[in-house]
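Trying the structure run again after the queue cleared.
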Amino acid sequence: MTPEADDVNEAIAAELRLMDPAVRSSRTEAARLLDPEFTEVGASGRRYTYEDTVAGLPEKPGSSADGPLYEASEITGVLLAPGLVHLTYETRFDGRRARRSSLWRRRDRETGWRMYYHQGTPVPPDTA
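Done. Tokens:
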């Protein structure tokens, strides 16, 4: 495997960890996977910061092992530059689909890959 493929695979593994209810329900674990400069644009158009996300993630859907879980598919990634990976994929959650895009940044080996930016767009039910 190439170093570029290793970087993409590490970012994918981190993305999948963020969908794990055990990680989502732990502010400490979520904080380790989010870049301090993290932002998200939600489906509503609202902007979320690192602080908003770390504080609110344990109460968001998908954070309970006995509730609905995120199912990711078609995850692909590309190394845009050293230390910067772009991922795209689709999720199903509680009967709804969304197309997602994330940027993962690695500043150093010690902190590892952290999500820098995320956006999810709902997919209407009649869309292929």
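The radius of gyration is 14 Å. Worth checking whether this holds up in the mutant runs.
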